[in-house]
Amino acid sequence: MSETVGRRGRLFVIAAPSGAGKTSLVRALMEREPGLRFSISYTTRPQRPTEQHGRDYFFVGRDEFERMVAGGEFLEHARVFDNCYGTARRQVEQALAAGQDLILEIDWQGAAQVRAALPSASRSSSCRRPVRSSSAACAAAAPTPKRSSSAACATPPPTWLTGASSTTWW
Prior knowledge:
Blueprint: E1 11-15, H1 22-32, E2 36-38, E3 42-43, E4 58-59, H2 62-70, E5 74-80, E6 83-88, H3 89-97, E7 101-106, H4 108-117, E8 124-128, E9 143-147, E10 160-163, E11 167-169
Parallel strand pairs: 1-7, 1-11, 2-7, 3-4
Antiparallel strand pairs: 3-6, 5-6, 8-9, 8-10, 10-11
């Protein structure tokens, strides 16, 4: 995934409800694929002591976040537990244009917006059992039979995987 010369980057979307293990999965993927870049989201939630502005999130006030929403600056945004989260459209577009593979770690609400923003992407679906791990390294989930339609899986996110020509959904 690290070769960027002459190709558009790929967008990988990890989408699941809060607390479902997205961060553990992203850490494991980034260890395994060092060419992946992590998209840093904007948030209105308070910064935690171990977090760094610009590394973990871009921490902004509610007014600034709403200004960005009104200006169409987000590819996706969502309100989760009274806090707002969003992915800057410009950041994603620049990384992909530069041939960089980019990973988004977002809520299901944001995933629906990304899908709507990328309507030309072809889709296929398959269901996977959830990955459960007590450590940062995730064990691989055993695959289940692949579905050939874009219909939602019987199990809710994070158990579905949808692939597209330039966007991969986890």
